[in-house]
Each structure stands twice: as structure tokens, then as C-alpha cells.
Amino acid sequence: MTDPEFSGLSALVTGGASGIGLATARLLAARGARVACLDLTPDVPGPLVGVRADVTDDAAVRAAVATAAAALGGRLDILVNNAGIGAQGGIEDNPDEEWHRVFDVNVVGMVRTTRAALPHLRRSPSAAVVNTCSVAATAGLPQRALYSATKGAVLALTRAAAADLVGDGIRVTCVNPGTADTPWIGRLLDAADDPVAERAALEARQPTGRLVTADEVAGAVAYLASPRSAATTGTDLAVDGGMQGLRLRPRPS
Ligand code: NAD
Fold this sequence. Notes:
Layout lengths: L9 E5 L4 H12 L3 E6 L9 E4 L5 H14 L6 E4 L14 H28 L3 E6 L12 H21 L4 E8 L2 E2 L1 H9 L3 H10 L7 E2 H12 L10 E4 L14
Parallel strand pairs: 1-2, 1-4, 2-3, 4-5, 5-6, 6-9, 7-8
This protein binds nicotinamide-adenine-dinucleotide.
């Protein structure tokens, strides 16, 4: 049975063909929204609509947003800015070109999609933008200088955009996932010298002792995007197994 929470609303999810984005697109659709997924390779199951674009290409983003709105009943109410890429290393480990490339996807990419969607969002009676940020924005993680800097920028951008757009009736929020069990982390583990030990180390870093699931992040995105959350804007919501907020004593061995 369809939950009517999102019925009549249209949503666009970037990076919507995999991991957190796909889980979010599926959940919003299950709760009644019409949903398009913008991605580099937008192979998504129906009723999701795939639109192809690279978020670093402004013209392609504008065309994809127009295509998505047209396919979803001529409207866009919800934008989930989720497309993102990783980067490893400390402050000395990436050249300028890599810093610019990762910022271009993770930060400017969100600016491009939001800018293109704004004319639609301004016409919506319950407009919401939800950005996928990270615990890396709020906790210092080793060997993640570039990635963390991009997510810190996403957090600041979320708050600034929320201030700018509240008068237009558009809410802007973000989710801060901890390490989530998605194809992204699968690739990281595959590249590790000892994938089993690496996975155990990532799990041990979470107070819950396990990785976050994509569905758990999707649930938080749906909460933030919902018309029922109309008083919530400028908020960042941690979905990190307690990683940011808890300080546990070592478990007895
Ligand atoms: P994922 O790799 O499974 O999915 C990311 C999707 O983004 C892919 O489908 C990819 O094709 C798309 N994408 C990448 N670059 C793009 C571009 N230039 N244009 C359009 N689409 C592009 O990863 P995920 O784990 O689901 O991550 C999604 C988001 O969650 C990212 O923003 C990531 O930073 C964030 N995040 C992930 C974790 C985690 O542990 N997995 C933790 C915190 C935050």
C-alpha cells in the first residue's frame, strides 16, 4: 500500500543510480513521489526515471533537470544532492588538480543542480533540498583532508542556502552519514591490503559496531524532505551509528 506522504510531489536524486542515492529514490517512490535519478550511468529500475548528466557540466545539468521535471509532471518539489566522490590522503597527498576535481563534483556540483532546480522549487508548495554531507564534515578523520574539506563546505553551503531560501518557502538540510555499506565502501575495501581487517576497523569505529545501511540514510533523507517536516531547515542530521556524538569507554576484552 502506498503511503501518501509524498503523493503529488516530484523528486530528483543526484547520484541516484547507486548506494544511498538509489535507496533514497526507491524510498521516496515507495512513499508516493514521482522520482528521477540523475547519474553518469542512470540505469535505474522503473518506476524511477533515469536522466544522464555529469554534475560538473552545467549545460548537461540544466538539460537533465529540465528533462526530469518534464518527465515528472512538469514540476520538481524535492532535490536530493547526493552525487559525490571520495578522496584519500593527508594535506600533502593530492595535487591542486585533484583538489579542484573533487570540489567540482562534491560542492560545485550541488550548486549547479540546485541553481537549475530553483525555478521549479520556487513554484512548489513544499520545496525541500537535502544534501548528502558526511560525518567527515564534523569529525576529524585521518587521511581524508580533501574529502573532509568538501563535506565541510557542503555543511556551510547547506546553512547559507537555507538562510537565503527560507523566504521562498524552500527548506535546505543535510544528512551526515557515517561509514555506509554501499558500492563506494565496497570499492574501498577491495582496494585495501587486507579487506577483512579494513572492514573490521571501520565497523569498530562506529559505536554501534556495524556500518550504516543505505536504507537508514534514505530514511533520514525522506524525513528531511517530507512536507511533514516543514519546520526543519538549516539542520544537519547525523546517521552515523553514534560516531559523532558518543564517547564510549573501551569495551572490556
Ligand atoms: P556510490 O558510489 O554507491 O554512489 C554515488 C553515485 O554518484 C554513483 O552512482 C555515481 O555514478 C554518482 N556520481 C559520481 N560522480 C558523479 C558526477 N560527476 N555526476 C553525476 N553523478 C555522479 O556512493 P554512496 O556511498 O552511495 O555515496 C553517496 C553520497 O554519500 C556521496 O556524496 C558520499 O560522499 C556520501 N557519503 C557516503 C558515505 C559512505 O560511507 N558510503 C558516508 C558519508 C557520506
